[in-house]
Write a structure and sequence with these properties.
Layout (H helix, E strand, L loop, with lengths): L1 H34 L3 H13 L3 H14 L4 H13 L3 H13 L5 H18 L2 H14 L3 H14 L3 H15 L4 H18 L5 H11 L4 H13 L3 H14 L4 H14 L3 H14 L4 H15 L1 H12 L5 H14 L5 H16 L3 E3 L5 E2 L15 E3 L5
Antiparallel strand pairs: 1-2, 1-3
Helix pairs in contact: 2-3, 3-4, 3-5, 4-5, 4-6, 5-6, 6-7, 7-8, 8-9, 9-10, 10-11, 10-12, 11-12, 12-13, 13-14, 14-15, 15-16, 16-17, 16-18, 17-18, 18-19
């Protein structure tokens, strides 16, 4: 008997609690759906227009819905983003402009609408309008980090490096991110522009600023080497070029030709060869070093010695490019009589011709030439040479 009562109490108490909650909330729930009985038919009608690829009619419905219930703003923002992704920028702009025009819109949603409209103009390439909207967000102190990031993108597109540096510094403060490497490359861009114009008076200072911010800035060292090389200051150029070994070895292949010329100008070709051998001893798996040494050996001692050198190093560190170079020297050493080997080399040449020489280590973007800015993931200094890899 006691067990039966306990069972009834176990069932009735939760039921009574739920019944009481339902009674107290029934009126609220009823009022909620009554207030929205006109909203949901319009909402689903608008979605139906989207699915049937009738965006103009969908926009009209969703814009009208703002007047009924401001909670639908998320729908408008999502729809605007959809149109922008589809390339229908004009429709995205209409939606976001309508949102901004609503006087009843709260500050948070208005800021979001400003951001999205700025992204619309950015997508269209109307940079001045996009810049104004993002700057308005900064002034409003709303979504500042996102606004700074888009302003940075704009100034990079415009090659306005002074403004880009200013924004990057603000981003460091606002987001606690480290932009020193990026800013260093901005200084390199400024130096490169002056170099192209033949105005070298500020280049030295710009390079110094880059290296102070990022001691591992390879581009700054290469540019310093080029500047000194052009002024026939070969000892200084050698010092700058050699710095690349410690900064990022994978870029060493970029400076070896210039470095060799510097040693030649100083009548110290043997010192260059000795330095190159030291590099190979310290970095045995870097093919760009082996390739360059093999070229020197072939030029000075003949193809047979170059073949011996490559065979020795490729036994433990095989690479397709290395094998291709080995075949080239074997053919040359045999007087060009190896017809079958020539055919194999031609096939390998085709493979290597389509293979990228540079790749972004962050997004995988591939290129035939060195870029300091990756157009794929929009990172600076992330593209590296693949020819140095075995």
């Amino acid at each position: 008997m006691n067990q039966t009562w306990h069972l009834l109490l176990f069932i009735l108490i939760p039921v009574a609690f739920i019944a009481g909650w339902w009674t107290s909330r029934k009126k609220y729930i009823s009022d909620y759906f009554k207030s929205r009985r006109n909203l949901y038919p319009d909402y689903f009608r608008g979605l139906n227009y989207v699915l049937n690829e009738q965006p103009d009619k969908a926009i009209e419905i969703f814009v009208k819905m703002i007047e009924v219930d401001s909670e639908t703003i998320e729908t408008h923002l999502a729809l605007g983003n959809l149109f922008r992704r589809r390339g229908e920028i004009d429709r995205a702009i209409r939606i976001h402009q309508n949102l901004i025009a609503r006087p009843s819109l709260n500050h948070e949603y208005k800021a979001q609408a400003y951001l999205e409209l700025g992204k619309d103009y950015l997508k269209l390439g109307i940079l001045d309008r996009a810049e104004k909207l993002f700057q308005d967000l900064v002034d409003m102190e709303m979504l500042s980090v996102l606004a700074y990031e888009h302003l940075l993108d704009i100034y990079q597109q415009q090659s306005d490096w002074e403004k880009a540096i200013n924004i990057a510094i603000r981003l460091e403060t606002s987001s606690s991110a480290d932009y020193s490497r990026t800013i260093a490359l901005y200084y390199c861009e400024m130096a490169n522009e002056e170099l192209q114009l033949g105005e070298e008076k500020n280049i030295k200072e710009l390079i110094k600023r880059a290296l102070r911010l990022d001691p591992k800035c390879v581009r700054a060292s290469i540019m310093e080497g080029e500047m000194l090389f052009n002024k026939q200051k070969y000892k200084g150029a050698i010092t700058a070029y050699k710095r690349v070994e410690e900064q990022a070895l994978q870029y060493m292949g970029e400076v070896l030709p210039r470095l060799e010329i510097c040693y030649q100008k100083l009548d110290k070709e043997a010192d260059f060869k000795k330095y190159l051998q030291q590099l190979i001893d310290n970095h045995t798996n870097n093919y760009s070093l082996l390739k360059y040494m093999a070229i020197i050996i072939a030029r000075e001692d003949g193809y047979d010695d170059a073949v011996t050198f490559l065979q020795h190093h490729l036994k433990s560190n095989t690479s397709m490019a290395g094998v291709n170079q080995l075949m080239e020297y074997v053919i040359a050493a045999d007087g060009g009589d190896s017809s079958r080997l020539k055919m194999i080399k031609q096939l390998v040449d085709r493979i290597l011709d389509v293979r990228p020489e540079y790749q972004c280590h962050k997004c995988g973007y591939e290129a035939k030439q060195l870029h300091w800015y990756c157009p794929g993931c929009k990172n600076w200094g992330s593209i590296r040479s693949l020819t140095g890899e075995l």
